[in-house]
From TrEMBL, chain A:
InterPro entries: CcmE, CcmE-like_sf, NA-bd_OB-fold. This is Cytochrome c maturation protein CcmE. Keywords: Cytochrome c-type biogenesis, Heme, Iron, Membrane, Metal-binding, Signal. The keyword Membrane applies. It comes from Hymenobacter negativus. Its main location: membrane. Pfam families: CcmE (PF03100). Residues 1-26 form the signal peptide. Gene3D superfamilies: Nucleic acid-binding proteins (2.40.50.140). The keyword Membrane applies.
From TrEMBL, chain B:
It holds the Pfam family Cytochrom_C_asm. The keyword Transmembrane applies. InterPro entries: Cyt_c_assembly (IPR002541), Cyt_c_biogenesis (IPR003567). Residues 842-866 are annotated as: Disordered. Belongs to the CcmF/CycK/Ccl1/NrfE/CcsA family. This is Cytochrome c biogenesis protein CcsA. Signal peptide: none annotated. The chain crosses the membrane at residues 6-28, 49-70, 104-122, 129-152, 202-221, 233-254, 274-290, 297-316, 336-356, 376-394, 427-447, 459-479, 485-509, 521-539. Residues 101-320 form the Cytochrome c assembly protein domain. The keyword Signal does not apply. Coiled coil: none annotated.
Length: 142, 866
């Protein structure tokens, strides 16, 4: 066997190791019921959950709990996933600005006891990129 | 309404497209079936003319688009959505490339200039290289073509009118010539000097990758499989330097402007440029290997092609919308995904097919490399870079796999790793280790004859010093109460070795009087960058811990995350090593250095104008007198935080910023950074009382007072000193016959006293009241009524939530190593370009090693393998 063959084998080995490590680290999008099931099985890997906030009739979010005077690092809210399962979520960071106006919330983390501990929150806000509102022209487009 | 300029612009785009088509075809024809340098003169003339027309048309497109932005022509969607009346001129340049169309245009522009350079300096290669250039231009211009062909939209024109974009606004029915008064403005995050120079640098880097690619394709086509390396090498060097600097510029902008707490977040948009840069640098090593040591040509070919394909892939990733949820800041999806994909696929397939068909003809070195050949180590280094690029590529593409599976009807739910930083770092760290070690070894070996003895001689000193240095670093880290893991120790070892080995190479070469080696300087810079990244990211230290001793009782006390502290206005709080005081909100006033206290300003109906309540003076110079109208930048509120070092008593002030930015979803925090030689203190706001919302005031408590009385306002008290005629201050627009009175009160706060002047106005028998507020104390006083009979005055006092900020502060040790390493790297690239530019003659480069060189290159003369 030539040295160059050994070298190519080594490259293939490293590349496979990279693919394996990515597969192992890759997360999944799940609903809360599956997140609970995972926790029950003792699987504490972090998952992604996509959901919406609970809102009242005036479209105001309800059940947000953030009191910076008591603890600026504690924010809790209820998220409803696409299969309509509601879950209390705790986030050990200040409440993200404009959390209330977001249409969709993506969280990563895992279940701890009765709550979902989120370590990251990604907000999708309405009309984030394409400008479609024209002030002074009396109407907006959808 | 000016329709002409847009039509001229759109016409120029079409002319540029047609001319690129003609140029590509005629360059192709002039060279078809002929050897290099023996082109058909009539086709060549036509091709040159066409490319020249193409260039002029592109300049015209740019001129038209800039005119639309500069003249505030809001009838055009591009100006309306990217600019506004208040935008300073220097940022109008940034709006030019804020949109996709403008950034494509920037890319096209650089390639026009590079094309002209090739026509001027690489005459021999002009025809086949420019055929590839024109072909790429054809595709890029098609992205901004904006025509509909057979029901398919080709490209998105930057000259589209507002009424063509927002077609269903009712206003068009009433007035088709409606032009908005103002634009929606440039995203305020991009109003930063880095955003003026970072995108052009990056796109110049993108454009520069086309040059070696075009040479490689020309070489494969013309079967000139070796001669292309020499002219392509200096361009690749420039490309490596420019793209590298562009990436770090982006990182620096993110560090200064975004609030994720660092300079690199492994966001797909960042990765999309990082991946081709790694491969570009690897290809550069392949080219140098061939140019100097006649080996590694196949590697060079493969990597040059891969770099360009990866640039196209990066474009596809960031602009097609495929990233969707995965990235915070990819471009808008303009519905051009299909077109982008065709572009990517066409070039990738054609280039790879051509490469495969000629693969067997590419000369290889007959010599088997052994461990005493520096070529081997350079080659291994290039491989490491490619593997590092592969890791980032494989993970960043996860959303692409999902879309692809969705396309063929399989639903997948794979997401990016939950902790991306940990995922990428754990492997990129080892890439860094190998890059630093190999660069040190290869640089030392490159410049000497190698056998066991010379190697031991030259490696002993740097190795011993490295071991010593690493031991010292470990001890120092431990001494400071921190831990250091095994991979970090290895990276420290490798980084130090890289620094010392490259430094000793530079030193030896200078001593032997040869010259400063660009390669060694660049590698020294890279090793320093690695050490800087290790220190600043690995030991980034949150200092805003809750040290009040209060424990909040919550569900998970064991892993409580106390990274943020709450600071009340004008109250001090301790933080690790510092005492912090938040002392109020400030605005930026153009023309006045630093920031101006909000309490010195009366806001007016125009958001961008305010009236000075007190003289605005900095360092003894008065910029505005009381009552002057001044301009402000209302989007940005700065929170003044005073830091006092508890040991030395030294003080400094930081102004972290909160920016009202509807486009990015509301309120955005940007950090403020205090730089010391050995570390940075980095602070950003995590939460504030929203400056956009009206404050909720308590119900007013009324008091009836006579002059001289004292009243209590919650925790403070005030003395009512006098009533006087109101001055023309707060933008009252007093008219003849108005009666205006103002009370003069002094409120005693914790730190200082405040003059408060609530105003009572009678105009046409209507009563008006202008309350006055002490923001520091959260108190507002209204002058409610006057009783002339008794000489008594009624005031209403209301209070509001006392102002506070929640902030996070971090210490970034030795981050300056990263920035200075980058400068060294850029300097090294620059030196190499100057030294190697155009020459590349072995004997001239390294006279010392001439003997070995000649021997080895004789042995390794290119021998085509059949």
């Amino acid at each position: 066997m030539k040295k160059s063959h050994l070298f190519i084998l080594a490259i293939i080995a490293v590349a496979s190791a990279i693919i394996l490590s990515t597969t192992a680290d890759a997360s999944v999008y799940v609903g809360f019921s599956e997140a609970r099931q995972r926790a029950a099985e003792g699987n504490n890997t972090k998952v992604h959950v996509v959901g919406k906030l609970l809102r009242d009739s005036q479209k105001r979010p309800i059940d947000l709990q953030y009191d910076p005077m008591t603890d600026p690092n504690y924010f809790a809210f209820t998220l409803v996933d696409s299969t309509h399962v509601a879950q209390r979520v705790v986030y050990n960071q200040p409440q993200p600005q404009d959390f209330e106006t977001s249409e969709q919330v993506v969280i990563t983390g895992c279940m701890k006891g009765n709550v979902f501990m989120a370590d990251n929150i990604l907000l999708k806000c309405p009309s984030k990129y394409v400008k479609k509102d024209l002030k002074g022209a009396t109407a907006s487009v959808k | 309404m000016n329709l002409f300029i847009g039509q001229l612009g759109h016409l120029s785009v079409i002319v540029a497209f047609a001319a690129a088509l003609v140029a590509a075809y005629s360059y192709f024809q002039s060279s078809r079936g002929r050897a290099l340098g023996e082109e058909d003169p009539s086709w060549l003339r036509l091709a040159r003319g066409a490319f020249f027309v193409h260039g002029v048309a592109i300049f015209s497109v740019i001129g038209c688009l800039f005119n639309i932005i500069y003249a505030h022509r809001y009838e055009y969607y591009y100006a309306w959505s990217h600019s506004s009346n208040h935008l300073p001129v220097q940022y109008m340049i940034s709006c030019f490339w804020e949109g996709q169309e403008g950034s494509f245009l920037l890319w096209i522009f650089w390639q026009v200039l590079l094309g002209f350079c090739i026509m001027r300096f690489n005459r021999k290669w002009e025809a086949p290289v420019m055929a590839v250039f024109s072909g790429v231009q054809l595709f890029l211009v098609s992205m901004i073509l904006g025509v509909v062909l057979g029901g398919v939209k080709v490209g998105s024109s930057p000259f589209i009118l507002l009424r063509e974009f927002l077609t269903d606004l009712p206003v068009w029915k009433m007035n088709p010539d409606f032009v908005p008064k103002d634009g929606t403005g440039l995203n305020a995050l991009l109003q930063n000097y880095w955003m003026v120079i970072h995108p052009p640098t990056l796109f110049l880097g993108f454009a520069l990758t086309l040059v070696p690619f075009a040479f490689a394709i020309a070489a494969l086509w013309k079967r000139e499989l070796t001669a292309w390396v020499k002219p392509a090498l200096p361009w690749t060097l420039i490309g490596g330097g420019v793209l590298g600097v562009g990436v770090v510029m982006g990182a620096y902008w993110a560090y200064e402007t975004l609030n994720f707490g660092g300079y690199w977040n492994w966001d797909p948009v960042e990765n999309a440029v990082y991946i081709p840069w790694l491969v570009l640098v690897a290809s550069l090593h392949g080219l140098v290997l061939w140019q100097k040591r006649r080996t590694g040509l196949r590697t060079a070919f493969a990597l040059v092609v891969a770099t360009f394909v990866l640039i196209l892939y990066a474009t596809f990733l960031t602009r097609s919308g495929v990233l969707g949820n995965a990235s915070v800041h990819s471009f808008t999806d303009l519905g051009l995904s299909g077109q982008l994909f065709i572009y990517l696929a066409a070039f990738a397939v054609l280039a790879v097919a051509l490469l495969i068909s000629r693969w067997k003809e590419i000369p290889v070195s007959a010599k088997e490399l052994n461990a005493y050949n520096p070529e081997l180590w350079v080659f291994v280094g290039a491989t490491v870079l490619c593997l590092g690029a592969f890791q980032v590529l494989f993970t960043t593409s996860i959303p692409v796999y999902n879309s692809f599976m969705g396309l063929i009807g399989i639903k997948t739910n794979v997401a990016l790793p939950a902790d991306q930083i940990a995922h990428y770092s754990k492997l990129q760290l080892w890439m860094g280790v190998f890059v630093a070690l190999l660069s040190g070894i290869a640089q030392i070996m490159w410049w000497q004859r190698n056998n066991a003895e010379t190697l031991i001689n030259s490696l002993t000193a740097p190795t011993l010093l490295t071991l010593l240095g690493t031991a010292l670093v470990v001890l120092l880290v431990r001494y400071n109460g921190l831990t250091i893991t095994a991979p970090y120790i290895v990276l420290t070892l490798a980084g130090l070795f890289g620094v010392l080995a490259n430094f000793s190479t530079i030193f030896n070469l200078l001593r032997r009087g040869i010259r400063l080696s660009g390669g060694a300087v660049a590698h020294l810079g890279i090793a320093l960058m690695l050490l800087g990244i290790l220190a600043s990211a690995g030991y980034s230290n949150v200092i805003s811990r809750n040290v009040s001793g209060l424990m909040y009782s919550r569900e998970f006390t064991d892993e409580l995350n106390n990274d943020n502290v709450l600071l009340w206005r004008n109250e001090s709080a301790p933080m690790r090593g510092y005492k912090l005081t938040y002392t109020g909100q400030y605005f930026e006033v153009p023309g006045v250095p630093g920031y101006v206290d909000k309490q010195f300003l009366y806001r007016t109906d125009d958001d961008y104008k305010a009236v000075a309540r007190a003289p605005i003076a900095v360092d003894g110079k008065t910029y505005y007198k009381t009552g002057d109208t001044l301009e402000i930048l209302p989007e940005n509120t700065y929170y003044r935080i005073n830091y006092k070092d508890q040991k030395s008593g030294e003080q400094f002030t930081l102004y972290p910023r909160a920016q009202v930015n509807e486009e990015m979803g509301g309120l955005l925090a940007s950090p403020a950074i205090k730089k010391f030689w050995g570390h940075d203190i980095y602070t950003h706001i995590s939460s504030v009382l929203d400056p956009r919302k009206e404050k909720p005031w308590s119900e007013a408590k009324e008091s009836v007072l006579s002059v001289g009385d004292t009243i209590f306002l919650n925790d403070y008290f005030a003395v009512f000193r006098a009533v006087e005629a109101a001055h023309e201050t707060a933008g009252l627009n007093l008219q003849k016959g108005d009666l205006a009175l103002q009370a003069d009160m002094i409120v005693y706060g914790e730190k200082r006293q405040y003059h408060v002047h609530p105003v009572f106005v009678v105009r046409n028998r209507m009563v008006g009241r202008v309350p006055d507020e002490v923001e520091d104390l959260g108190v507002r006083i209204t002058f409610n009524a006057v009783d002339p009979a008794t000489g008594k005055f009624t005031f209403g006092v209301s209070t509001t939530q006392k102002d506070y900020v929640i902030l996070k502060a971090m210490e970034k040790p030795f981050i300056n190593l990263l920035w200075s390493g980058t400068l060294l790297m850029a300097l090294g690239f620059g030196l190499s370009v100057r030294q190697r530019g155009g020459k590349g003659v072995i004997a001239e480069e390294a006279p010392e090693t001439e003997a070995t060189e000649e021997a080895s290159s004789r042995a390794a003369r290119p021998q085509p393998v059949s």
